[in-house]
Protein 1
Amino acid sequence: MRRWAGVALLLSLLLMPATGLPSEIQRGDHLWEDDDRLLARLDLEMNLPEVLIEALANGVGLDFRVEVRLERQRGVFTDRVVASAARRVRLEYYALSRHYLVTDLDQGRVELAPTLGDGLEMLARRLGRVVLEVEPGTVVPGLGYSLAGRVLLDQAALPLPLQWDARLRGAYMTRFGWYRWPLE
């Protein structure tokens, strides 16, 4: 009995998530820019756990990735992905200048922020706008289409000790699964 209690305690410590998720999708909407370009807009609330704030202060850059998919519902449990897109943004801290640097890795655009709060706000704004290229004629009115989005911390870009912590705890991701909203 004692052995099982020890194993259960060890598993609960390893799988216990750290406090604070890096981001949370508050809501999503969309806007057709053209016949074949769909802009997905995500309202993100960016929060970092203490271990990531400490990592930033020690010169570790954090790479975030947002993924958005346009899906067509085929059945109760299955969806077909019609189009998908991703965007990557890095957050870094430079101690000598005491500024945070937000870099859009796909477009090469760089912004400076004087505080962590400002940096997280810029990060959320950059991650929250994703353009999907949709082939003309693929979206048929009347069929059930939805958009899905999620934000992840790129764990492979972290130093090895933080990678292990992230994998064991699963602490540096948004909610498990996708945030969905209907395409109307």
Protein 2
Amino acid sequence: MSTAAAKDDIILSAQGLTKRFAGFVAVNGVDLAVRRGSIHALIGPNGAGKTTCFNLLTKFLQPSAGAIRFNGRDITSLSPAAIARLGVIRSFQISAVFPRLTVLENVRIALQRRRGDSFDFWRSEKVLSAFDEDALRRVDEVGLADYAAAEAGDLSYGRKRALEIATTLALEPELMLLDEPMAGMGQEDVARISALIRRISANRTILMVEHNLSVVADLSDRITVLARGEVLAEGTYEEVSGDARVIEAYIGAGHE
């Protein structure tokens, strides 16, 4: 692959990403390149700077230094809403489901939001029903077709997470960022959501923070390991899991 082609293949990149808090450096000079069409995991022990780095990439925090580019465009100074309009969608931005609304209605709200600055709550049911076909397609995509008429609050935890992913998909992300998608799940739900993430990644790029190493090993094309706010290693799971520094800092510490 030529240098130009390789550059075009990078959908999200960071150079020298740094965040200081009152003298404490939480993220220090992180370089990151997420390849288009891949599942890229950001991992590391507790206190490694994963969440801070994720918040910087999604612009919930402004970096103290460094640059972030999406599709070659500098987005360092943009707001979360502005990068969302470009197609960078973080799941938790709309992941709080409306418990008394149905699964279909929750996804429909996300579709309504995509139209502009208003959720269109004031519009008639007849007008809003025009979104139903698209909403049902998103619901079916995450395996919730049988629950379309169920109230979101009655879903199991794993199915609520699937619904959150459906509302994220409704915003048509080019790059989907998932913050610990398996957190708090039992083994059955982990297997279900892992299969869902693999399925929806077929024509999307996913960057995720995840503690469950078996999930990371199963899903990730590439992994960046952070420790003490810096990149410790990067590569495939086989490469990073065999790195002595990673074993000492992460696996040896007993974190998952």
Protein 3
Amino acid sequence: MKKRKDVWKPEEDKLLKETVLEYTSNGDSKASAFKKASTELGRTVSACRYRWNAVISKKTDKETNENSSRNSEIQIYETPGAVPPENLAQVIQFLRNFAKTKSRSVHLMENKRLHEEQKDLKLQNKQLIRKLQEKEVEYANQFLQYEEMARILKEADQLLKQDSVEEKKAVH
């Protein structure tokens, strides 16, 4: 069980905020963000959720409103049609997501390559199974021939022994 911590430090607020914003911008739930933050902060999931809802989300909304009014004044000097980020946190978030998206494409390519390799290996496996079955049939046929030859040789040996016994009787 995690030990109770009452006072939140600014660094903890910052980490919680970054974690929640990162998770939600990636399409993940806040619940998974709170779980991740709780392990990093050594706090309960409930404490992280409460802190987010009671303090941080309100600060974030206030900052967003202040920045949007500032941006509307600055927009006059920017190129027409460009939508500027509202604050530095959004720029950072965009860059993080962009980096993750780029690395995902590498993972997607690797995943595609591995799927192709898997298809090839399955085909190769089917071919080997077919060859094995052919060899098993061939082995069974050869084994039957061997048994037949062994039976014939045994009969011949018995006939030779009988002839030998009969010759000995005839000599005596």
Protein 4
Amino acid sequence: MDGGTKNGEGIMLFKLIAITLLFFSASHANFLFLDTIEKQEPPPDFVYGAHYTGRLFAGGMDNFGGASARYRINKKFAVGAKGEMDISRTGFLAGGFMHYLPSGRLHKNLAENYLHLGVDYINIDSEQSPLFSIGYGRDMLPWKKSAFGFRALLRIEYAPINHVFSRKDKGFFGLDMIKFANTDFAFEIGVFMYK
């Protein structure tokens, strides 16, 4: 009987410890609450990076390389500046832009879409004009807490002054012809960084 009593007390003590540990683990466990909200990290205020832009106009494409910087005024709006050099021929572009970021959740979703509005100054082969642009873009992070990301942006651009977007072309009979355009389609891909 004495052996049975000691064994019974040992089992009872084991049950008491197990129930106590179960109680403490259940009282501190967040997995039991389905409505737990993950703490959202705010999007970065200052973003800078480098990019490549291809501009399609007058039946051909010009290649531009550049850099940009963007400052987020609040969760939904950001302003920035950029500069680009024409790699295909002599030219450059400088200007500013505004982005409307409807989600404001770059870190939570690892991606953020935005609308682009821009006003630039463009000079190609000594022809110059203001350049107005509207577009749609996306910033993407490769993983959470990444210190860099990727950017893709599609734009339609309009230059009010003629002869800025021009291209020499062989005509139907082999004669040199010059095609002019006031609008172009631009696609931009790049890398951005932030602190």
